[in-house]
User: Fold DUF4250 domain-containing protein from Photobacterium frigidiphilum.
Amino acid sequence: MNLSKYETMDPVMLMSIVNMKIRDEFEDLDSLINYFEIDKEILINRLKQAGFDYLPEVKQFR
Assistant:
């Protein structure tokens, strides 16, 4: 799944996709961010507004 529309995507769907990609394809959030050339602050803030925080110890948004 492409994350090119992460700024307008439904936040629950976005969280699910990001978590799945980190789990299955990337080492961590930074690897995903670099690969898709995503603005990390925008992604984190978008998900934070929906109630999700990134937990680096488990490499997931929850």
In short: The longest strand covers residues 54-55. Residues 11-61 form one domain. The CA atoms of residues 4 and 37 lie 9 Å apart. The mean pLDDT is 96.
